[in-house]
């Protein structure tokens, strides 16, 4: 009998642990560096955590409109790095990103931005043609052209591999999709070449939208 | 006794005929399997795991009539790629460039056997000899 009771209580503890975990899962983690900042306000010292955020950038989208990080104020967004003539992973990434687009194209709070890492070739005209062929319209998904050095530098803030050019002038980059919240903090990274991870991203956007400070 | 010998001979003959018939089958299967591996590494990123292509950017490989009509040119497409050409696939125009590959004729035959018999296509074995002959006629 004693054994039974202890077994039952052990089970109960386990069950409650599960429940606790699931409640915790309703909030996405915050990625990147964080720095504690101690301030003295009215004689009281308070320490706050400052999270890594995406810095300002200047680009143009496929319509020729200027897009800076200000254009994304009030939006949850997904970012990636690509180029239109990419023969390797980009078609896979954008085949998967189309699913994100289809899921959120009618949601004004969610945007997708794809920075080209080959701005010399990928002019506004080329990006527009690519967008048309990809089958995207409106202002949900922007394809962005900026200064190459600035975009490469910016990629570090998104915690992705800094693009490189190899001897054949091909651009080497990784295929990650980065989920950024309204405070411009990184809330998730997903391998854009793996459909299951992109499904996860689509679900995580929903979770993120439900957080109180994302309304 | 006589009956046993005759039946044994018959069985042997049957096995021989069966294995002969299957020679082509085995070649086909070998081409198809290797072709699938080549497809995964060389073609799938653009043309998709199910040959579905990508919107209007990358043509699908599901247009059986197109594959049949351009059978002789497919080897050239794979080997030398496509530049500044417009292809009509499934009644839609595709003008994206296709990069060349450095595949050997046997590998081209294998990958064409795979694509020609997947995604709803059923075009049988494409041999290395056929590919070699077609590569000589590339424009």
TrEMBL record, chain A:
Superkingdom of source: Bacteria
Residues annotated as signal peptide: 1-23
Annotated Thioredoxin domain residues: 48-210
Alphabetical UniProt keywords: Copper, Signal
Family statement drawn from the similarity comment of this UniProt entry: Belongs to the SCO1/2 family.
The protein's name in its UniProt record: SCO family protein
The species this protein was found in: Mucilaginibacter panaciglaebae
Automatic annotation (TrEMBL), chain B:
Domain Cytochrome c: 30-119
Coiled coil stretches, renumbered: none
Keyword Iron set for record: yes
Keywords for this protein: Heme, Iron, Metal-binding, Signal
Protein name: Cytochrome c domain-containing protein
Keyword Metal-binding (UniProt): yes
PANTHER family (alphabetical): BLL4482 PROTEIN, BLL4482 PROTEIN-RELATED
Top-level taxon of the source organism: Bacteria
Signal peptide from the UniProt entry: 1-22
């Amino acid at each position: 009998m004693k054994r039974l009771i202890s077994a039952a209580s052990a089970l109960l503890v386990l069950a409650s642990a599960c429940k606790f975990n699931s409640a915790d899962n309703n909030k996405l983690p915050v990625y990147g560096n964080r720095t504690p900042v101690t301030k003295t306000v009215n004689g009281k010292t308070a320490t706050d955590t400052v999270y890594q955020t995406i810095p300002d950038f200047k680009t143009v989208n496929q319509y020729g409109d200027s897009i800076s990080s200000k254009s994304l104020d009030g939006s949850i967004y997904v970012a990636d790095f690509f180029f239109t003539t990419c023969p390797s992973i980009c078609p896979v990434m954008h085949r998967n990103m189309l699913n994100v687009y289809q899921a959120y194209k009618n949601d004004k709070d969610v945007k997708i931005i794809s920075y080209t890492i080959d701005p010399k070739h990928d002019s506004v005209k080329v990006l527009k043609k690519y967008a048309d062929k990809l089958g995207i319209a409106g202002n949900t998904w922007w394809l962005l052209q900026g200064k190459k050095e600035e975009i490469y530098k910016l990629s570090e803030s998104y915690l992705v591999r800094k693009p490189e050019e190899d001897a054949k002038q091909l651009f080497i980059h990784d295929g990650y999709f980065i989920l950024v919240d309204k405070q411009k903090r990184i809330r998730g990274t997903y391998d854009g070449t793996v459909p299951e991870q992109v499904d996860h991203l689509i679900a995580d956007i929903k979770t993120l939208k439900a957080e109180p400070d994302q309304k | 006794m006589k009956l046993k010998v005759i039946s044994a001979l018959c069985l042997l003959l049957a096995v021989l005929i069966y294995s002969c018939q299957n020679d082509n089958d085995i070649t086909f299967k070998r081409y198809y399997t290797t072709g699938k591996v080549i497809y995964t590494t060389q073609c799938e990123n653009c043309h998709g795991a199910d040959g579905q292509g990508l919107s209007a950017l990358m043509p699908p490989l599901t247009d059986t009539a197109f594959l049949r009509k351009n059978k002789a040119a497919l080897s050239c497409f794979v080997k030398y790629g496509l530049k500044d050409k417009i292809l009509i696939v499934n009644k839609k125009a595709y003008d994206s460039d296709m990069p060349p590959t450095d595949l050997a004729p046997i590998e081209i035959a294998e990958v064409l056997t795979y694509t020609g018999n997947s995604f709803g296509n059923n075009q049988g074995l494409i041999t290395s000899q056929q590919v070699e002959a077609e590569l000589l006629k590339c424009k």
